[in-house]
Design brief:
The protein is an alpha/beta fold and 538 residues long. The protein has 16 helices and 18 strands.
Length: 538
Amino acid sequence: MSTSKLPLVDRLRRLPPVKRQAIFAMIREKHGVGALADLRNDREGFWMRESQIVTDEELNPPDRKKPALVCFTGPRGDGKTYAACHLFNRLIVTGKAKHPRIFAATEADVDKAVVHGLSGIMSLYSETDPMRPVWLTSEGSAGVLRYPNGVEVLCFSAKSTEQAVGYSGDLDLYDDVAKWGASAYTAWGHARVSCRVGMGLGIVATTRRGTHLLQRLLKGDLEGVLMKRGDDLDANKFNLSRVVYDQVRTELGETDFVRRELDDEDVTAASPFAGLDFDSAPIRVMAAPRSDFAEVVIAIDPAEGKGGDHDEWGIGAAGRREDRHVVALDDGSGSYDDDEAATKALELCELWDARRIIVESNRGPRVLNAIRAAYYKRQLEAREDGREVRPMPEIVPIRAKDGKVLRAGPLRILYAQGTLHHAPGLRIMERQMREWDPDAPRRPRVDDRIDWWVHAVHHLADLSGAMPFRREQIQGLGQRVRDMKARRYGEPDATRIPYGAISASGLITHPNAPPGDPRERPRGRRYRRGGITKKKIW
């Protein structure tokens, strides 16, 4: 966020102390000792950021439908409640709202947060201000806020919003909907249905934590919703204690708590990967040196184009260790054209010494041709500079026949088995995995980076079923046939290969088979004359 977009108070706070004191001295000398005190009540001109201000033009746009909801969202301490209370109070004082209401998680939240909190409505007034409203805690469902102009604000908790149905409102303030809990859906329904007179405007102040109710709203894909969210998540850091941004980030790192509370990320959305803890073992591995991997591949999920409404290119590196565990190593996804995407994939090949590129070919051969063209270009540049020329990676085209839900399903099983891991630095991809909702609208996209990882896992973990029989499988089949003949004809088997244990049913169980592999557990046989059926050959 550029400094010019910050409010005056934040621009002053970002200056070195010596320079700031010099500016204050100049103001006192030029305009008098009380000059800065005149700015105390100039909230929109001095105190508030651009993202915290809602103009009359935004509430009454001449070229489109008026918004029914204004939503302030951001991390903790970002000023959401302050901005919502300021707009709510402004519409009451200017006479635009006649029947305003306040909704919060509990009665205590109405009193201690919305009305008397540090960012509440009362903080907008001094103790001696004649326009200061009066709080009547004993009236109404959860209290009444009475203004000098005669307007009364009825207050309700989320647990008793059915009482609000009988009191139609024209302006509602919904505080921290993420805290409304199990009654959120019912409370929201009662509140919105009964806000049906006058402007019928709702003002929302909430974090993204657990906001299943407002998931679509926070994505910004609903008509009639005005989203207000700051571009710079650190814009408010100078208003808060340094402990929040320094000590907490140092102690907790890139954990879900920090992402949710300080970075305004929703880590509890209804995703097929919801509930997975990407920050802890066994998923998180802190070190992933190239020497640990038997194979590293680069996977590509192409996009149709660059910028605009196009998806991102999903490009990343993944490796299979000797124990057959698969690790996501690097995410190079982004908005590229064909040449840029091919160059990025080749750069990852060089970085991770990958000899194979997995490419989704549903969109035709253009991506494969772009990779070949980019390789020959880099080969020519390397020869001209006297650098080593790397061999061209093997390009493996694949076709995504099933939907993403079906393709991503096996990954959750592998996560549960502890055979899928993430290296550090995959924050955006992990956020998309949490937020991905298969039933959500196509736009805006939040799953562009998932596909490359799905393709890589299907290849490295051999989930496609298209790979040939492995050597140990063929050995196991041969040993089973020899053992059957030995038991039937009483012939000793002198050629026995020490391969695995023989189960009670006579089948070979492979001791090193990965979890979930059918070879790790014995299965019954079917007999026919002449041997066993093909149905039971693994």
